[in-house]
Amino acid sequence: VGACVEENVRQQMKQAVAQSHVLTEMVEKGELYIVGGVYDLATGTVRFLSPEKDFAVESHAVKSKENAHGY
Fold it and tell me: Tens digit of pLDDT for each residue in 3-53?
């Protein structure tokens, strides 16, 4: 399931850029960098994903002290 979620995030990132000539131009100029994330409900962490699996940026985990729901 995790791989499906990650692939969905990557596809949404690509689709957002593909559907907007403004975003496409900004990304091409290096003015905008699209980063996706997967939130883990159980741990409260967000893993950030690059748009491509072989992209230069590595995924990172960020633990929040408290999520928006106060859990």
Answer: 999 999 989 988 999 999 999 999 899 998 888 999 999 999 999 886 555
Strands in 61-63's sheet, in edge-to-edge order, are: 36-40, 45-49, 61-63
d(CA 58, CA 55): 8
In this prediction the pTM is: 0.63
DSSP string covering 20-53, please?
-HHHHHHHHHTS----EEEEETTTTEEEEE-SST
Residue 44, sorted as left (phi over 0), alpha (psi -120 to 50) or beta, turns out to be: left
